[in-house]
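Exercise 7. Given the components listed, write out the predicted structure of the assembled complex. Treat all entries as one system.
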Amino acid sequence: MRGTLSGMRIVLACLALGVAAIGTVGGLRAAIQGGVASQRRAILGGDLSVESPDPLPADLAPFLRAQGLRIAEKTRLRSMLYGPHGQRMLVEVSAVDAAYPLVGAVTVDPARTLSSALAQGVLVEPLIEDRLGVHPGDTLRIGTLALPLAGALAHVPDGASSTSLAPEVMLSQARLEQSGLLAPGALVTYRLRIALPDDRMQGRARRVQDLARTISQRYPEQPLRLRDVQDAAPALTQVVAQVSQFMTLIGLASLLLGGLGVASGVSAWLQARTETLAVLRCLGASSGTIARIVSLQLGLLCGAGVLAGVLAGIVVPAVAIHELAGLLPVSPDAGFHPAPLLLAAAFGLLVATLFTLPPLLRAVRVSPVALFRDDPWERRIGGWRLPAVLAALVAVLVLLATLTSPSPWLALGFCGAAACILLLFRGAGLLLRLGAGAVSRTGLARTGLGSAWLALGLRALHRPGSPASAMLLALGAGLSTLAGIALIEGNIRAAVLGQLPVDAPSFYFIDIQPDEAARFDAVLHALPQAGQVRQLPSLRARVVAVNGVPVGQVRASPQTRWALRGDHGLSLSAAPPPGTHIAQGAWWPAGYAGPPLLSFDADLARGWGVRVGSTITLNVLGRNVDLRVASLRDIAWRSLQLNFAFIASPGLLSGAPHTLVATVGSSGRPADDAAILQAVTDALPNVTGIRVADVLGEIGSLVHRMALALQAMGVLALLSGALVLAATLASGQAARRREAAILRSLGATGRQLRAAWLVEFGVMGAVAGVAASGVGAALSWLVLHFVLQAPWRLLPGTLAATIAGAILLMLLAGLLATRQALRASPAELLRQG
Amino acid sequence: MDGPAALPPEYSGAHAMLQARDLWLTVPARPGAVNTQHGQAEGSLHIVRGASLDLQAGVSLGIVGPSGSGKTSLLMLLAGLERPSRGSVRIDGTDLAGLTEDQRAQFRGRSIGIVFQSFHLIPSMTALENVAIPLELTGRADASRRAAEALEQVGLSHRLDHRPGQLSGGEQQRVALARAFAPGPRLLLADEPTGNLDLETGGRVADLMFALQRERGTTLVLITHDPALAARCNRVLAVSDGHLSEPVR
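Answer.
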C-alpha cells in the first residue's frame, strides 16, 4: 500500500509539474506582452518612428512641425568610449535633442533632469560604470570629445525599441556633432519620433497611418523605415513569442511524459483495489457504479494535481517578474492572467483523462471472476470504443496545442515528432524484450560464471508486465532532448569558434577616414606587436534592382533573401584582395576606368540567379548606380579575412565619400592586443577597434546562454521522466519485494539479486542511452540542417555522455528499488500470502 | 518449556536431520517497543516459546495447531528465513546461527525445499521458469531440463509454458511441489500445502507430496491445521500459543 500511496503522490507531481510549466511560461509571456502593449507608445518613443541609415531629409522636421506634431531626434552609432586611464570599450552612442523623450521619462542616477545631466556631460548604462570602473565626475572620451560622466541611465523608456549588442551612452545631439564621429561613411542610424498632440486622441491609429503614407510618398527615394506602436518592440515581441512557444511545447512534452507516470500510478492504485472492486461486483455493484466511484476518486486526485500546477503557475511568474524586474527591457504587467492558466489546466485535464482512462476501464469492465483469479497480463479491453475515445482525446489535445500556438505548423510538427519519439522508444522497448527473450531462450545467459543472476536479469526484461518500455520512454525522452540540445550547441560552437584559421586577424578597425590611412599604417608599423595590416575602402550600399527587376520582386532563395534587405558594405579595389578565389569571370584589368564593374559573392549570386554579365543596381549615398557583374568569388567567410560581398571597380565611385576598414594581425595575447588597441585609438580617436577574440567570446557566451536556457527545458523533461521512472518503479515495487522474498526463500543471495537487477537496469539504461543518442542526433541534424542551415557532425563525446548518463540514472533507479526490496523481511512478506 | 519429543524406535539408526533447541521468537507488541538483552521485552509478544525438536533423516513430521498458534513462524525459523530471538536450529549438522543471511540462503537452495500455502510462484514466469529458478541459483547448467522432468513427475508436462495465473490452484501447488523437490533437498518444509485447495485437489496434492517424499527419502516437516493430513506423517506434534508439544489425544 505504501508503494501505491507514493505512486499517487507521483501522479500528483507529474500533473502538477507539466501544468505548472505551461502555466508559468504562459503567465510570463502574458505579463511581458501585456507590459509591451501598455507601454508601447513609450517603447516606440512616440506614435510613429522614422529611421534611416542616411541623414533624414532636411525638410522633414519642419514639415512635421508645421502640422502641429511634436518630434524628437535620436541618432545612434557604435563607437569606442575611453575612461580617464585609457580604459576603453565598444558602446552604442545615442545622441538626443532637447525634445527627447516625447513619451515617458529617462531616469538618471543620481536623480536630476535629463536636460541638466546632458548639459553637464554624458550618461552611461550602469554596466559601463562597472566595466570601466568610472564614477560621476570622471572624464570620458568619445571620438575627439572629452566629457564628464554626469550619471547612470537607470531607465530609458525606448530601450526595448531596438536591439543592441553594446551598452548605451547618451549625449546631446550638439555634442555628437562636435565628436568627429559623424564623418562621411560612418555607420549611423538616424531616428525621428513623432507624437500626435494629445487633443487628437480620437482616430489616432488612422492619423498615424495617413502620416506614414504621406512621409513615404514624399520621400520615395529615401530608405526610410517607418514603425507605429503596433510594431513598437519587434525583436522583443518576436523573441518572447518564439521562446514562450518553444517552452510551452517543452512543458507540454513534460506533461505528456508525466502522463505515463499517471498511467503507472493509477494502474498500481487500481491493482491494489482489485479485490475490493471484485467484492463490490460480487455484492451486486454494476460496472457503471464502480466506474462512477473510481472516476470520482481519480477525478479528485487528478484535479488536485492540476490545481497544484495552476497555483504554481500563478506563484512562479509573480516571483519571476519580481526577480527579473530590473533585467527586462519593459516592465511586465504584474496583473492576473487567467487565459494561460486555463489553457494549462485544460492540457492537464486532457492528459490526465487520456492516461487514466485505459487502466480505469480495465479495472471496472472485467468480470468479478476474472478479477479474482485470471492472469493480470491477459486482461485486455476489447472493442473499438476505448481506442476511439482515446483517438478523440489525442485529436483534441493536438487541436488545442495547434490552435493556441502562434506557429500552428511548428506545434503540429512538435506533435508529430512527439508521436515519432513515442513510437521509437516503444519500438526500442519491443526490441529489448525480444532480444532479452532470445538470449534467455538460447541459454547464452546461462553459460558463464554466476549465470543465475544474468538469466534472472534478462528474464526480468522480457517477462510480461515488464516496465522496460515505459522506463525507456521515461528516461529516453528527456535524455534525447538534452542530447539534441548538446549536439546543436556543440556543432554551433565548433562552427563559430572551432579551428580558427592560423592567419585570422585579431582586430577589425572601422571608421578610418581616407586621410587617416597613412597615419594608421604608420602607427601599426611602429608597433612590434602588430602583424599583417590590410585596408579596404568601405561604403554603404543598398540593393535596388537585380537585372532590372526591383528588389521587392526578385525571386531569391530563402537562404539569400536576407541580403536583398537593408544596408551592405561595398568596397572598391583595383586588384583582387589577397586570397581571392574567382569562381567565374575575371577581375578587371589594372588601371580600368570604364563603366563600373562588380565582383560578387558566388553564393549570393546562385541564390539571386545572377551570372557574369548580369547587372545589379545599388543605391550608394542616395544615387542609383548600375554595376555589371565581371566576376563571382568564392568567399571563405570563416577565414575572418577582410572581405566584402560587393567589390566594385574604382573609377566612378572612387570619388564618393567613404571610410576605410582594416584588419590587423597579432599574437592574440591580451597584452599585445591591448597595446595595439591603445596605440591606434590614441592616435586616431574616431577609429573604432573591434577585437575578434572578444566578439567570438561574446558569441560563444551567447550560444552558451541560449544552450543553458534550452538545457533548463531539457532538464524539465528529464525531471518529468524521473517522476515517471519513480512512478513505474513504485507501481511495481510491491511485486518486486514479493519476488525478492520468494527468490530468497529459494536460495538466492543478496549479491545474486543485486547482480540480476544490475543486469536488468544496466541493459535498460544502455538501450535508453543508445536510443536517446540516436533521437538526439536526428533532432540536432534536423534543426541544424533545416532551421539553422549549418553543417552537422557527430560529436562522439556527447553521445557517449548521453549513454553513460542513461546507464547511471537507470542504475541509480535500480539501486533504490533494490535496496527497498532487499530491506523487506522475506518471512514477513511470505507470511502475508 | 517443552522437552523434545521421543523418537519412534524404527528411526533410531538414522542420523539427525533437524535439531531445534529452545527456539523463541519474540517481537515488539507495538512498533517502537525495545527488546531487552534477555529476549524479553516490555510490551513484547512471544510467537514461538522455547520450541525444541529432533528429527531423523527421512522422517515425516506433522505439526498441527489452530490459526495464529505460531506454526508458520516456527517454519520460518526452521527454514532460516527468520532469526530466532533465542535458541538454535541445526540442519544436517549445520548450525544456521553460524551462517550469514546469504550463506543461509545458499544453504536453503542446496538443502531445503519449501512449499507455501499460497504457492508463492512468481506470477510473471512460466511454470518451467518457476521450477528452474532454484536450480539456476545453485549454478546447474541443466536447470531447464531438470525443471521439465520435475514438472513431468507432478503431471504438468503439458503446462510448462503457462504462467501461474493461467493455472488452477491445484496445478499451481503442483508446480510449487516440483520447484521444492527439483534441487533434491534433504529437508522439505510444507506450510499448509493443501490449505488453499478443495478437498479432492488437496488430497491429490498431498498424495503426490508424500509419494515424492518417500521416493526420495526426504525429511518432511508438514504444518497443517488438518489432523487427518498430519496423521499421514510418521510423527505429529502440536503447537499451541507458541509451545510445541505432543498432541492431546
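Discussion: Residues 427-503+693-833 of chain A form one domain. The first strand of chain A starts at residue 48 and ends at 52.
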